[in-house]
Amino acid sequence: MLLLFCGNTRVIENEETRFVSHLLSQMTIEEKIGQLVQYSSKEELTGPRVSNKGIGIVSDVKKGSVGSFIYVDGAQRTQELQQLAVDSTRLGIPLLFGFDVLHGYKTMMPMPIAMASSWNEDLIKKCAQVSAKEAASSGLHWTFAPMIDVSRDARWGRIVESSGEDPYLNAVVAKATVEGLQGNSLADTLTIAACAKHFAGYGFAEAGIDYNTAEFSEQTLRDVVFPPFRAAVDAGVSTFMTAFNDIGGIPCTKNKDLFTTILRDEWGFDGFVVSDWNSIGELVVHGVAENKKEAAFLALDAGVDMDMEGRCYRNHLLSLFEQGSVTEEMINKSVERILKIKYRLGLFEDPYRYSSIQRETVGVYNEGTLAVSEDMARESIVLLKNENDILPIKTQNKKIAVIGPFANDKDVPLGTWRARAENYSAVSLLEGLESRLNGTKDIQFAEGCRVVNGEVHYKSLLDIEKNDRSGFTEAKRIANGADVVILAIGEHCYQSGEARSQTDISLKGLQQELFDEIYKVNKNIVVVLMNGRPLDITAINEKAMAVVETWFLGTRSGYAIADVLLGNYNPSGRLPISFPRHVGQQPLYYSKKNTGRPEKKGSTSIYQSNYKDNKTSPLYPFGYGLSYTTFSYSEISVNNSQFRKGESIKLSIKVSNDGFYDGTETVQLYVRDLIASITRPIKELKQFKQVDIKAGESKIVEFIITEDDLSFWHRQGGVYAEAGEFVMMIGPNSENHQTKTITYDI
Ligand code: BGC
Question: CA-CA distance, 447 to 487, in Å (whole number)?
Answer without folding.
Answer: 9
